[in-house]
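Tokenised fold entry reproduced for everyone:
>
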Amino acid sequence: MTMTALVELLQSLPFLFIVLCGITGLLVGSFLNVVIHRLPKMLEREWLVQCAELNGNEQENVPPYNLSMPRSACPQCGHKISALENIPVISYLLLRGKCKNCSAYISARYPIVESVSGLLSAYVAWHFGFGYAALAALLFIWMLLALTCIDIDTQLLPDDITLPLLWLGLFFNLSATFTDINSAVIGAITGYLALWSIYWLFKLATGKEGMGYGDFKLLAAIGAWLGWQMLPLVIMLSSIVGAVVGIALIVVARLGRNVPIPFGPYLAGGGLIALFWGQSLTQGYLQLFSVS
């Protein structure tokens, strides 16, 4: 089948496109699990190597550690994960959430990330239909999903993802995929400066850092994708959800008030909501207050 015939088939059969995107999302979710687990460790190793070089202690024969090497293995017994044990969601269910070799429990995080990626990818295909916007939105949600989980685990939002996310937003909006390029550029600038200003006001008032620089870059990236008009909605949604979850963690889980809570997942959630329903939510808000 030629590429032209495949494109025509996907355009004529929306259900097939949705299923294809869902399956692709499952596969990408499996890869995202690798990124979520390994990227922070890769950055830590890079920082240690740089520190050693600055101190004049060059490290030799350091085994490679990246997204492809070494092969995935059970952390308990070292059993190498085969291809049949790495089928998204299905392998986890067949193995009953345990290592095939030593029966150590496998974190439920893996099938959850794969399932969320698959479901969101299928929804993107249904919401946008076959076309350029769907491709762009898939990249957007996959990168936000990786950032969300990394921030939950480490309270870091790596530049290796946030900066490409920002530039991709500007690239896709050169053709006004989600907004015009002027709105995208202003959104990137405004998104960064908005949280940067809040950061410094909070620090001057309390002497403490209320958030990290990664949050500035993430909101700048969301602004580059969706335009500056969506930023108030994203900030409002993320703040509301963050406040509710934060209070719940303090009351239910008895989490100390001084324990930092990552803000990146709430920004990502606000960005996803704005991607799918931003226009209708904004119009409903304006109509509610009779603003035109």
